[in-house]
Specification:
Structural class: mainly alpha
Largest sheet: none
Number of helices: 14
Strand content: under 5%
Helix content: over 70%
Number of domains: 1
CATH superfamily: MetI-like
Order of helices and strands: HHHHHHHHHHHHHH
Radius of gyration: 27 Å
Shape: flat
CATH class: Mainly Alpha
Length: 310
Amino acid sequence: MTATTAGETTLGKKPRIEPGLLSPYMFITPAVLIMVGGLLYPVVMAFYLSFYDWEIGRELQDAPFVSFDHFVRMINDPQVWEVLWVTLRFGFWVITIEMTLGIALALLLEKPIRGASVFRTIFILPLMVSPVVVGLIWRYLFDARIGWINYYLGAWFGIEPLVWLGDPQLAFFAIVFTDIWQWTPFIFIIIIAGLQALPSEVIEASDIDGANWWQQILLVKLPMIRSIIIIALLMRLIDVFRGLEVMLIMTGGGPGRSTELLSLHIYNRAFETQQLGYASAISVLLIVVVFGLSLAILNMANPMKTRSDV
């Protein structure tokens, strides 16, 4: 009888929520609200605006509703797919070279050798320059008439002056080179921070086991900072699709559309041709592409474990 009564009493009570269980949610709530307000709201608004033929100077409530017309137009627009291909090519080359150079420089300068601090300071200088200034600097360096690059190529190698920013292939090479110069230090800083945080006991154990320098790098150091490498790769991927200022200053997307990235194409559609609704539709495409590539990288970085228990 006593057990039954106790059981009924236990079932009848409302579950108590310990105050300590709510503490983590209270701490992350401000960050979640900021993320919703600063990230989710603009994405939702971009998708919402893509259904309207909206222009600057017109009230949104007065803009005609066009349903999925902008998305149909985008699918059939060869310019969109052309600039998307330029963006993917640009992203492939800059990310591949920047990750390779950044990791290599970090591995070379991780040890406290003489002059390492000086080299580290020099390598991070491009990060201190704003993108607009970077575009102006390299625009003048690549100038066909007064640029230093043509001057030294002619003085040292006897090469005739090249129209760097007027030829589609040379202009594409110029923006790739500029991005590598600016953002390789970003990869360098992240990787060298991860390398210097590795436990010295693991490195000493690999020395005792007879591992040489290459074996330590390939079998010990890089696997241990794998997550840091993936984070750096994702951040650069997102930055590539956000790239706008340097290309706008250096080439304006030309000649033709050889250097027009997707973000620059969205800018031109929104502010040059006043097609804000159509630009919003292309922005949705940009979000989908970045999201898909990010998921692909994360899936490759974290492959599914084999079900060994089956």
